[in-house]
Amino acid sequence: MKKKNNELTGVREIARRANVSIATVDRVLHGRDGVSPKTKARIDDIIKELNYQPNILASRLASKKVYRFAVLIPKVSNETDFWKAPLAGIQRAEAAISEYGIKTSYYLFDLNDRRSFDIQTRQILKSGADGILLAPSFINEAAAFTDLCKERHIPYVLIDSNIPNQESLCYVGPHLFRSGYLGAHLMNFSLNGKGTILVLNISKEVDDHNYLIQIEEGFRAYNKYHSLQNDIIKIDVTSAGYTAVEKELTAAFNEEEEIKAIFVTNSRVFLVAQYLERSRKRDILLIGYDFIEKNIEYLKKDVIDILICHRPGEQGYQGLMKLYQHFILGKTFENISFMPIDILTKENYEFYNNYMSV
Amino acid sequence: MKKKNNELTGVREIARRANVSIATVDRVLHGRDGVSPKTKARIDDIIKELNYQPNILASRLASKKVYRFAVLIPKVSNETDFWKAPLAGIQRAEAAISEYGIKTSYYLFDLNDRRSFDIQTRQILKSGADGILLAPSFINEAAAFTDLCKERHIPYVLIDSNIPNQESLCYVGPHLFRSGYLGAHLMNFSLNGKGTILVLNISKEVDDHNYLIQIEEGFRAYNKYHSLQNDIIKIDVTSAGYTAVEKELTAAFNEEEEIKAIFVTNSRVFLVAQYLERSRKRDILLIGYDFIEKNIEYLKKDVIDILICHRPGEQGYQGLMKLYQHFILGKTFENISFMPIDILTKENYEFYNNYMSV
DNA sequence: CTGAAAGCGCTTACAG
DNA sequence: CTGAAAGCGCTTACAG
Fold first, then answer.
1. Listed residue (A269, A153, A252) closest to A215, CA to CA
2. Exposure pattern of A250-265 as b/e (b: 16+ CB <10 Å)?
3. Pick from B342, B354, B358: which is nearest to A338 by CB?
4. Chain B from 30 to 89: CB within 8 A of any A CB
5. Which residue's CA lies closest to nucleotide D9 at its C1' atom?
6. Cβ contact (<8 Å) for B347 and A222?
7. Beta bridge partners of A261
8. Per DSSP, what are the bridge partners of residue A131?
9. Contact A57 B55 (CB under 8 A)
10. Nearest to residue B286, comparing CAs of B302, B263, B267, B265?
11. What are the pLDDT digits (tens) for B144-172?
12. Are A202 and A264 spatial neighbours (Cβ–Cβ below 8 Å)?
């Protein structure tokens, strides 16, 4: 049975009402030119009146246009498997949206080699990607790159950490200050105001400073706000190897007897755990960051008490979905999406990453 | 330009190779009968050989079939806004999949009236829903209902709590025993083995017992496993009103001086917080469940120290998506999806629910 | 500036 | 048991 005219929907109905062809409606819908202002106005009115919502399935099926997204993140290394989770999240998103004519390409760089970051950025620009998802691990290089993106009007989404004052499409990641603040609270929850606290920044890269400093400031802010009397000793370990950590910690423990807790501002907390284990120091409260294998190992052994995490998988998933929302759905959204700050212990870590099937 | 024959893809290519029409291919693809065994075998082989993946967009666009999902959850009440979050998650999923020809209907029942649950179940069966998402709050009624669903071959997904030994399509929710176990750990993290602990079950419904008992058992298991010497006093408050809680707590505090902490096995922890505030008892460690307004209020005021949560929004989202995966994508999956067990404090609760935009 | 027509990869009656 | 044809709601050349 053929539908009656007044049962038409979508572009057909708009075309009928405006007395034009659906091709013209399509032109207006996508803001292409070649339509007289008069016609355009008429069609625009009808679109509003009908509160027309395009059928994305039909649109994507008919269109040959392929959107190309580039993903620029660190490769998983022997040192750390942190980036496994974001990658998995990104791939989960990729699977969900690939039917919509989206091609996702991966450009992985080496966290120990800032040139590899630059090399990949050049590849991306050459590739002609429509949108970019990146982790700005090398902040200066990243800022230079996003400047280029802006020049070329290529939207980009940041995950893991933010570049201040950059007009990204979105930042998906933690509120670092608040994360450090939470860390201090968790320490105090157990210490109840007593004992000296060691704060450790372990990083050979100056780039991390922006990242670590925000966490440290949050940490200190908590103790200040609550007028806690704990001494805080801050140590910058400018090498990410075990020996450097061992040396600094040995010195610290020799000088100061009252150390009751250690807070590590990034995922290198396992190095400290290793030290505590080897030197048989028990009853030191140890809190650090990130769900990585080496950390989980010490969490299980009760050497690390708490790991703070920022949903790395979710960051990757959401990051790519933001590009999808922007390009395919034409949605707008807040340009910051803060991740929850999660608390992992020996008792709940198992459930943290295994629910990600949808 | 017309494509060459050997560039054909999808059903067309299968049909060409099998020397049949695409209608026949379609029949085989969907297991409809009316195809000779010989032809079917031939087509099946080709499907495998080509590793054919149907184009869901085209499929859903062409099909007139509408899938109807029924959602059976408690309505948000004045007493608690707990069910806001699952509802929001379900609606988020609904928005994501509605284009695929899915109609979602809501059947909300009253947690104070088990008959309302029954009434809604009858409505659902009458409606002829294809799949059901439900919270089995009244466990006996729910079991009777899912028995009927099984008889009629209507798949259903459970959220929030499980019905033991039911063959649901999936359970999406917490591992309650482990959740209680974590609760005990958090207590001990602050108490360090000292002080008497009060465990409170506040519920007038016998139905909740299965739920609460699992949590309590987990809690006790932790203390036993770690040989903690804390006394545990367990109180069942069989009314969900403030006065009953006040009476029981007053009595408990009069009898026992050493109470240092209270663990409430469900979201009624705000009633205890209210009591502690009114009776000016400070320094009592208070841990309970769920991100609801009244609890957050006391979390902010430092009366409640920790809330344990099981991603209610995610449960709703994933629950509906499981039905989608089953019906539209024809995917298979584990029939249990345990939620992470999250720890909320005054410092991180703000980030817990605001990232849900995708 | 505009329209007629083919096509995206499927599903659905209908006819035989 | 099987196939030809129309159609889902869009987009895309192409022609004028």
1. A269
2. eebbeeeeebbbbbbb
3. B354
4. 55-58, 60-61
5. A58
6. yes
7. A197, A285
8. A69
9. no
10. B263
11. 999 999 999 999 999 999 988 778 999 99
12. yes
The answer to whether B349 and B307 have CB atoms below 8 angstroms apart is yes
The two tokens of residue A302 are: 């009760």
Interface test mutation site (partner B, options A60, A185, A341, A352, max chain B beta carbons within 10 A): A341
A352 vs B192, B340, B346: nearest CB: B340
Q: What average pLDDT score do residues A65-92 get?
A: 92
Which token pair is B99?
Answer: 């284009």
SS3 category, B134: strand
Is residue B73 within 8 A of residue B134, CB to CB? The reply is yes
Average pLDDT in chain B:
90
pLDDT in tens, A214-265: 999 999 999 999 988 888 999 999 888 899 999 999 999 999 878 999 999 9
User: What tokens were used for B289?
Assistant: 């469940």
User: Side chain identity at B46, as an amino acid letter?
Assistant: I
| Nucleic strand C under 7 Å from the C-beta of B26 | yes
Instruction: Indicate if the pLDDT at residue A79 is higher than 90.
Output: no
Q: How far is the CA of A67 from the C1' of D14 (A)?
A: 25
C1’ D3 / CA B27, Å: 12
pLDDT of B37 strictly over 90: no
**Among A276, B299, A19, CA closest to A287:** A276
This prediction has a pTM of 0.90
**pLDDT confidence tier of residue B121, bands split at 50, 70 and 90:** very high
Kindly tell me the burial class for residue A96, based on how many C-beta atoms sit within 10 Å of its own C-beta (0-12, 13-18, 19 or more). middle
**With contacts defined as CB-CB under 8 Å, which chain B residues touch A181?**
347
For the beta sheet containing A156-159, the strands, ordered from the edge strand earlier in sequence to the opposite edge, are A102-109, A67-74, A131-134, A156-159, A170-173, A336-338
Could you tell me the domains of chain A? Answer: 2-54 (1.10.260.40), 67-174+312-340 (3.40.50.2300), 176-309 (3.40.50.2300)
Q: Is residue B2 over pLDDT 60? A: no
Cβ atoms of B97 and B323 within 8 Å: the answer is no
